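Thread: nicotinamide-adenine-dinucleotide complex, take 2
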Amino acid sequence: MTATHVLVTGGAGFIGSHYVRTVLGPQGPGEVTVTVLDKLTYAGNPANLDAVRGHPGFSFVHGDICDDQLVHRLMGNVDQVVHFAAESHVDRSIRSSAEFTRTNVVGTQVLLDAALRAGVRTFVHISTDEVYGSIAEGSWPEEHPLSPNSPYAASKASSDLLALSYHRTHGLDVRVTRCSNNYGHHHFPEKAIPLFVTNLLDGKRVPLYGDGLNVRDWLHIDDHVRGIELVRTGGRPGEVYNIGGGTELTNKELTGRLLAECGSDWDMVEYVADRKGHDLRYSVDCTKISAELGYRPRKDFATGLAETVAWYRANRAWWEPLKDRAAL
Ligand code: NAD
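Output below.
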């Protein structure tokens, strides 16, 4: 059987690299080869791909998804695309949204055009639950209207809709996933969990936004990658699939758990002014992916969080050099 050649954009980042390590690892499907296309922005880290560097089915291209010529050239021998590359930090998008519009919107358009022209079989677009906006009660099904609030979420909603338009207009087999907040190892230390853990391990205080009552659903990267693989291999063209973790916590509850894991107390918490336009609550309804593809999250949050904190304790050499880059 010939291997399926998958182009993974943003494969040096947090989730993309876990995806690559997993599909090329012992638990992977076995019939896949991967080319990673990554610009190696501040968030991209070649060390995240060390585990697969010598793999015969792996290659890496240092480049920008907005580079039309490069992307068209690469797409020539690609069967499927899994598109992670993005500017991903909400706080940075509040400071300046230019790179978010360029990479997330224009970059996605360049990839879609190239995929269409090259006759790529399947294009999996990794979107986010943040495209739905904020919900006080209940959960969003996939057909819920999009109402993004931050510039990050607006750029992701734009690329999400653009991707779906290539299915409706051109018949390209596009599948969109909208996942909740991911956590796990190799997470860049600007995001809440790795920022809090690395600060606490260094004996530094942690910044908690506003009253800490914003609610997020936490999804372990193992579960997310499994969900993406179910969609890549068994999802339907033109469909959107929510992927959730099933653990909703206020930021205050999350902080309490992180303090306990790190052996710290509430003296280490500094309440800071709330994020502008801070969404109160995200919650995705995962009925569709469960019913159609048999997805359910497997990682228990307490176990996943303990493993994550243990990884940061054991891997200072990975995150210490990144702390300066993480400062806004
Ligand atoms: P990340 O910031 O850790 O990684 C992004 C990667 O994309 C980096 O390797 C970076 O170098 C690369 N990149 C950025 N701009 C590029 C460009 N112009 N060309 C090529 N490569 C470029 O992000 P992540 O947390 O791994 O998120 C991956 C995807 O998942 C994103 O699309 C994000 O919107 C989505 N998502 C993430 C979360 C989460 O909790 N982290 C939740 C929902 C959705």
